[in-house]
Amino acid sequence: MNNLKSIATLFMLLCAFGNILQAQVQEILTSGNSLSEIFSASTNYRASYAQGKILITYRAQSSGDSDRTFYELTVGGTSLELKNDGNLVAYDAANNVVWSSGTSGRGGADSFLRMQNDGNLVLYNCCAGNGVPIWATGTCGGVVNGCGATGAR
């Protein structure tokens, strides 16, 4: 009987740990925040911002494979922020704008950037789940221009 209690306790701890890990995977970037990395819900794709580049990476699904970055968009700057007006903006160290998605005024405080399960990084104007795409990388299926060119929609 003690073994069953130990197994049940261990199972509950593993489930709780799994939920904690799952909760730490950020799927969207909300307005007013800066991008470091976000993952698709499946965790197969990762969007990140590093050294002035937006990177889309397909994450290895088995131990013998390695992650594959298949998309780079050089925007410059030291930070990438989703503004409250729906514009994705890169800033340099002096806080000067060096790049933007060109979507200023097409969104609002509820705009969000999502790394989708199909590998496309999409900026939505609002309303998690019901928003309209206003900018995207066009990287569906892990292919550059897999569903259109990078840019405003």
Written account of the structure:
By secondary structure, the protein is of the alpha+beta class. It has one domain: Agglutinin, subunit A (Orthogonal Prism), CATH 2.90.10.10. The protein contains one helix and twelve strands, in the order αββββββββββββ. The strands form three sheets. Strands 1-9-10-11-12 form a five-stranded antiparallel beta sheet, with no helix packed on it. Strands 2-3-4-5 form a four-stranded antiparallel beta sheet, with no helix packed on it. The longest helix has 23 residues, at 2-24. The termini are far apart. Mean pLDDT is 87; it is low at 13-23.
Keywords for this structure?
153 residues, alpha+beta, Agglutinin, subunit A, four-stranded antiparallel beta sheet, 1 helix, 12 strands
Q: Gist?
A:
This protein is of the alpha+beta class.
Global geometry: globular
Q: What name does the CATH topology carry?
A: Agglutinin, subunit A
Residue runs with pLDDT of under 50 for 5 or more positions: 13-23
Strand elements, count: 12
Domain module count: 1
Indicate the mean pLDDT.
87
Strand order of the largest sheet: 1-9-10-11-12
**Structural class of the secondary elements?**
alpha+beta
* Strand/helix succession: HEEEEEEEEEEEE
Question: Biggest β-sheet, characterized?
Answer: 5 strands, antiparallel
Our count of helices gives: 1
Helix content: 10-25%
Tell me the distance between the termini: 61 Å
CATH architecture assignment name: Orthogonal Prism
Strand content: 25-35%
What is the CATH C level class, in words?
Mainly Beta
Using the CA coordinates, give the radius of gyration. Answer: 18 Å
